[in-house]
Amino acid sequence: MPFKVTEGVIKLGLRVCSHRTLFHFRSVSLKDTYVSIQSFPHIWSSKQSQTCFSGTFGSPVKFYSQRADHNDELQVGNHLLSPSVPPDEIQSGETLSAQRQGTFPFFKHLQCCGSPSDVLGLTCKYSPTIEQISHCFSHMWSTTKNMSYERRRYELQLMFEQPAFDKLLQMAMKNVGRMGHEDINYCLLSMVSLGVPQRSRVVQTFLRACQDKLNDFDEKSLSILASSLKHMEEIPNVVALRDGMRLVVEGRLPRIKSVKCLQSMMGLVGKDAPRDLRWKLEKKALSMMDQFSLPNAQYMISIMAIMNFHSKPLLSICSKMILENLHLMPFNRLYEVLLACKELMYRDIDLLTGISEYVASFRDIFTNKQVLLILSVFESLGFCPAALMEANAEKVISNPEVLTLRDILCVLKVYSSLNYDLQHQRQKFLDSVSHVLNCYLPKMSGFELLRAVHSLSVMGHFPSAPLEHLLQESMLEQLAELAKICQKKFQTLDLCLRLDRPTLPQPLTVPTFVQEESILTSMSIKQRLAQDLKSLLGDQEKTMLQEMVVVENFYFIDGVVTKPLTNQTCVTEAGEQFSSPEKCQRFAVIYTPNSGFCYGTSHPRGALAVKLRHLKILGYDLVLVTESELQLASQEKRVDYLRGHIFPENRRSETLPEMENLG
Asked: Closest Cα to residue 562, out of 650, 623, 607?
């Protein structure tokens, strides 16, 4: 009777303690290996999936003395073993399997285990065979995948605390030489995933075993090994295995006959593959393009992203195949292709436009989250998906209440960054988004609110409620702590309020203490552009050139050309007076990188669009010189382009058509 009471008390204690937070640290050895873990001071283990073991393994509650010696050759007390299993049979797994397989279906019981501790309990009851060792480790890892962070941390702590885990690792290490290739690799993958220290003796033993048998590994074994090595430290045995795998892949290339096998091999070599090996893989893939299916084309782009390998011929062929079969692609694969394009910074206008039009045509079958994920990738690529932007705007206008706070922030970021012109729907769209934003004001953090207001100001929209909430003293003091992140956004907002002059219930200003103090100190005019401007103005006596002008302590202008109107003198930017300001004309010549425009167009993106808007308000005529034209066009054509905009009366017959569109 006292024993039953004691056992009941222990069960209750374990159930209560299983929900406590783990704070203390101690070290548990794994045969010359030490694992840093978190532990409870008294109670060490409680089983989770008790229903699967009831009536088979007896009580699922076990407890171990904290004073137990784990270093004595990892010996486990007899109380951990089934009475019918003598200790000397632990090492003879195959004999044990032959004796027990008919009576005790080990794998059936293994599937009932719901935690690593349950698996260890099973190994204490029935010593696993060599093949079953691999399954035990794999199942221990798989049981933790869907657990919450706190639950997983607790279960792994229990696992490391149990002597049965030491015994299982010791058993695996002693039998690694007799394991099959897949079993070796699955054991290694599971150990690394479970958090067994990578420099431990058991992990290093498995790495050495993989090195010894590497030439005999088939495609599947190599793939499993690659998954293990992907997240491992750069320790000698890992580096040696990675180099060896590349040699194996290179040696097997001529014998590869299936696309799937080739793609698996490409995934094995990783981002650090030598250039020669990349070229060989590319050549092999191009020789097999007639065998490519749609899934092969999708996966090839993802594989190239994993390798960080930008092969234009492969990407072009795969993109064409995907474009022709968009209607057969589920969202997940479509999104994976876009993510791979983002990783590679690969922008095929036809493919991106096709995806935009396809998603826009079937907008109703996609969720808001899916559409916004796609829009976010487009924005990262700098591509403006006009069809999808239009379709999504209509959806927002018709039903704005379905938008979550995260949805609103994403919508505002995308539409402001790409500077998409909604034309007649612009005001309806902005009003709808602003209305929903007002509902979330009490729940928003200061930085979220700043992001939203900044995006709206970039689009030239200034709702009063978010602005007033953002510019409260308490909110500004909170954001002042994030100075480096917020300063530029605050300065843009300040310029918008001063230059755009929105109509507000009360005047609002941005305090100087949250703005950036000094900027553009490292900016300089491009040498070619400076030479072109000097060449253009060499014979213009009444025209003044100023280089590297900073306006409003924020906007950098490469060159300001000030010229008088017909028969008039003028005032320069430096203040040299030879006429009244209204009698002169100022041209802001601005060098613009390609990233300032939406990809494949001359349409300026958000930051550039705001700069151009404000410079026009300040009275400048704009002349944009793009990065590509400055690098590729001849000096004569560049000067002719500048002359056509600044001195149209002296314009030559030929100009740069591409640059003309930017004027």
From this structure: 623
Q: Report d(CA 292, CA 459) in Å as an integer.
A: 45
Q: Residue 657: which pLDDT band, with cuts at 50, 70 and 90?
A: very low
Q: Name the pLDDT band for 275 (thresholds 50, 70, 90).
A: confident
Give the CA angle between residues 265, 270, 276 to the nearest 5°: 80
Distance CA 116, CA 29 (A): 18
Which residues touch 135 (CB under 8 Å, ≥6 apart)?
107, 110, 128
CB atoms within 10 A of CB 287: 10
Closest Cα partner for 656 from 645, 646, 647? 645
Instruction: Pick the range with the lowest mean pLDDT from 95-109, 235-249, 277-291, 513-527.
Output: 95-109
How far is 481 from 437, CA to CA, in rounded Å? 24
- 263 backbone dihedrals φ, ψ, rounded to 5°: -65, -35
Given a cut of 90, whether residue 80 has pLDDT beyond it is no
Report the distance separating Cα 644 and Cα 301, nearest Å. Answer: 44
pLDDT at 318: 95
Nearest to 499 by CA among 451, 453, 554: 554
> Distance between CA 564 and CA 577 in Å, rounded?
11
For 81-132, the pLDDT digits (tens) are 233 333 333 333 344 344 444 435 788 888 889 999 999 999 988 888 888 9
Q: Is 398 helix (H, G, I), strand (E, B) or coil?
A: helix
Residue range 586-631, pLDDT digits in tens: 999 999 999 999 998 999 999 999 999 999 999 999 999 988 888 8
CB distance 630 to 646 below 8 Å: no
Can you tell me whether residue 46 is helix, strand or coil? coil
From residue 246, how far is each of 80, 207, 223, 240 by CA, in Å? Answer: 44, 16, 12, 10
**DSSP SS3 for 344:** helix
Structure tokens, 528: 């070619």
